[in-house]
Amino acid sequence: MSRKLFGTDGIRGTANTEPMTAETALKVAMAAARQFRRGEHRHVVVIGKDTRLSGYMLEPAMTAGFIAMGLDVVLVGPMPTPAVAMLTRSLRADLGVMISASHNPFEDNGIKLFGPDGYKLSDEIERQIEAAVLAGDGNGRAPPGALGRAKRLEDAGGRYIEFVKSSFPKGMRLDGIRIVVDCAHGAAYKVAPTVLYELGAEVIPLGVSPNGFNINRESGAVATQEMQRMVVERKAHLGLALDGDADRLLVADEAGTLLDGDQLMALIATSRHRAGTLRGGGIVATVMSNLGLERYLAGLGLKLARTAVGDRYVVEHMREHGYNIGGEQSGHIILQDHSTTGDGLIAALQVLAALIEQGGTASEVGRVFAPLPQRMTSVRFAAGSDVMKLPIVERAVADAENRLNGTGRLLIRKSGTEPVIRVMAEAEDERLVETLVAELAATIAAAAA
Length: 449
Description:
There is one protein chain. A hairpin with a 5-residue loop joins strand 11 (249-252) and strand 12. This protein has 14 helices and 19 strands. It has four domains: 6-155, Alpha-D-Glucose-1,6-Bisphosphate, subunit A, domain 3 (Alpha-D-Glucose-1,6-Bisphosphate, Chain A, domain 3, 3-Layer(aba) Sandwich), CATH 3.40.120.10; 168-257, Alpha-D-Glucose-1,6-Bisphosphate, Chain A, domain 3 (3-Layer(aba) Sandwich); 259-366, Alpha-D-Glucose-1,6-Bisphosphate, subunit A, domain 3 (Alpha-D-Glucose-1,6-Bisphosphate, Chain A, domain 3), CATH 3.40.120.10; 374-448, 2-Layer Sandwich (TATA-Binding Protein). The chain is of the alpha/beta class. It starts with 5 loop residues before the first strand and ends with a helix.
């Protein structure tokens, strides 16, 4: 059954347009409350958000929905997505909600839901919540005397800061290390610089002045140029770029050269493998991760298990098969020993720990493998259309596969968060890769017009 509300990472859309309206947010809260209400105890939900303007609309709407169903609401304000997951478990809450569209511009927003264990919901539970919302089920409202209450958790930031710091090796410090950290004017604008400073680093903060409109704008993990430039200008040892809800991380070495999620996973996995603490015999990544990563791990006797795109699917595979490291090329890195979801700050500390342990610069230590040439582009299409099944597109894809002749990979998929088709190719022949992506994108664009 196709889903109308939930995508690969919760519900997402343009603010104040369906499904990102106050009305739908209220209905989602009520449906989620029904789903997770069990027993006679006082039920609790934790609600966090990032810094975009529409959070002021969606947060009270969801609060009202939960209160109407008899759930108490704990508001934590602007906090990273992984902080909401952590607090949901720490407070023994029944449900966690993060209001964020992650790396998207301020015009968008989204709703991510976490169960009492701090993990994102399964497809099946999301389907049940979605069905209740679409059916307009208004049953289960609390009587007047059993309505929920809302309160603000004043020390939420401090709790999360200490939680993140506890993931850093005991006795290790960041003294003498100069770090540029770009918070994308997003949810980590306070906590990220604080964590690094308290561990001893000299911190150069960027993207720490949110105004409701500038989240992810020319900053953070989706626009790293300013961070890279600042690393070189200020002679920093490295730069860290988080996205709007701080669940992903990209790193720049001391020369300003970018290290993506594949390189960071390889670095952390290598460190854990040497220490004997890597579980599962490898790591979990998505179909987007570079073939060079897979070959590098194989050289260590490790495997790369691939999943569909979406950190939720990575986590599900990790839990099912006993891995403790996984993530995405885009910078979502899940470290199961510390967190239930991608956490850019925890990942950053593990990268820093690996650099300190190996005693080299970020350029020496952080570039773990040689990636194969990989290109990706996005093609917009009309919502509801199935352009990939058109004969002209199918023929173009088959022809591209033949031209690769087993020397690389071709991946074409619909995005789970916006109406675009991702076209990706990788192979040892860079010119062939660029040609295939350009030709396929042109064919799909023409067919979608």
